[in-house]
Design brief:
Layout (H helix, E strand, L loop, with lengths): L13 H13 L6 E2 L1 H6 L8 H13 L3 E6 L2 E6 L2 H8 L3 H13 L4 E2 H8 L3 H13 L3 E4 L9 E4 L6 H4 L4 E2 L2 E2 L1 H16 L3 E2 L2 H11 L7 H21 L5 E2 L10 H11 L8 H13 L3 E3 L6 E3 L1 H7 L24 H4 L1 H4 L18 H6 L3
Antiparallel strand pairs: 1-3, 2-3, 4-6, 5-6, 7-8, 9-10, 11-12
Helix pairs in contact: 1-3, 5-7, 10-11, 12-13
Length: 370
């Protein structure tokens, strides 16, 4: 019969009240834990009769619809779905004990040695119970990344947690080297395109300056800087004889959220990557010396060696410290190239009274940390 479980009258039988209590609890989230006070506050038990409440919870527990737990040394209950409760009716006492423990660990799974300890069942008896539960498709054995040789069990209808499977970089508990390589290669190329540029725009800047008389406008300056940024992506694809980093003050180095969004839009990964997973990949690139992270902005910059390799260029030789060009024609390391002027893509605009000048140069202030 249909029972109005909003607030049943006192004339209802204990069976009807029990059904109404279960129906009300089942409408709440599955992981809700109910104390005695919580159940009374639902307004199902007439006159908040504690004895009647305990009678109902006892029957529901015996029927497998309530699971009795302990919290702060007090009894509490959790609702069990009817289909799950039906499974318990088909199990022996020992099988029910094993199933209950496996159910309690959720997506993390449980090692058979811990299961043996918690259940108190002899090893041979537990192995028989697990074989029966697997045969009924109630549980399954899974392989974890941290302990691949351990026998770990969880409910058949659950997917292992990312901690257990290793996330998208693992397939059946084994590291997918090819997938990791492709993801790292794409990520590195994406960072390179936003870390270095071909100084074609510098020559265009010199040409633009010659065609203008007097101070150059800030609009033209910004246009040249934007042109350098837009040109960097195409330079990665086409290759270049010379590359330069962006000047101090450049804020286009990609952050983890930007890299994650870009790789999800690329269609390279069959699953949606999370920022935490991309950070693992970026950490590997950092450890390998391919990229470096700015601890102030959080952006990632590709190192010069990696940028040249991505552009299919030979790795430049180490300079001898005297500032002469390396074997690939790129300028060597010197005091001039370390200063903002030595790498400034708008150096041609630098003049007294112009939009870029030594007196007001914002790059110098940042370089000197003034």
């Amino acid at each position: 019969m249909d029972v109005d479980h909003s607030k049943p009258p006192a004339t209802l039988s204990s069976q009807d009240i029990k059904n109404a209590l279960y129906a009300r609890c089942a409408t709440l989230p599955a992981d809700t834990i109910f104390s005695q006070a919580d159940l009374l506050e639902l307004g199902i038990i007439p006159n908040n009769a504690v004895n009647l409440l305990l009678e109902c919870t006892k029957k529901l527990t015996e029927e497998g619809l309530f699971k009795l737990l302990t919290q702060d040394n007090r009894p509490v209950w959790r609702v069990v779905k009817k289909e799950d409760a039906q499974k318990y009716k088909t199990l022996t006492r020992d099988e029910a004990i094993a199933y209950s423990i496996i159910e309690s660990v959720g997506r993390e799974g449980i090692w058979i040695r811990i299961l043996t300890h918690k259940s108190g069942l002899p090893g041979s008896l537990l192995a028989k119970c697990l074989k029966t539960l697997e045969g009924k498709n109630y549980i399954k054995q899974v392989k974890t990344v941290k302990f691949p040789t351990r026998k770990t069990y969880m409910l058949a209808g659950l997917q292992p947690s990312e901690e257990a499977t290793g996330g998208p970089f693992y397939t059946d508990g084994v590291l997918d080297d090819e997938f990791v390589h492709q993801m790292a290669k794409w990520t590195e190329r994406f960072i390179v395109g936003r870390s270095w540029y071909v100084p074609d725009s510098h020559h265009q800047t010199q040409k633009a300056k010659k065609s203008h008389h007097g101070p150059v406008s800030k609009q033209l300056l910004e246009s040249e800087r934007n042109s350098a940024l837009e040109h960097s992506s195409s330079s990665v694809r086409q290759g270049s004889k010379e590359i330069l980093p962006f000047p101090p003050g450049y804020t286009g180095y990609p952050t983890i959220p930007e890299i994650t969004q870009a790789i999800n839009h690329s269609g390279l990964s069959p699953v949606t990557m999370k920022e935490a997973e991309m950070k693992q990949l970026l950490d590997v690139l950092v450890w390998d010396g391919r990229v470096e992270r700015n601890r102030f902005t959080g952006g990632y910059k590709a190192v010069k060696r990696a940028a040249l390799e991505v552009m299919n260029k030979p790795r430049p030789s180490r300079d001898n410290g005297d500032g002469e060009a390396a074997e690939d024609g790129l300028p060597g390391r010197s005091a001039l190239t370390e200063a903002p002027c030595g790498r400034c893509p708008v150096l041609a605009f630098c003049e007294e009274g112009g939009p870029v000048n030594a007196r007001t140069c914002e790059y110098f202030a940042e370089w000197l940390e003034i």
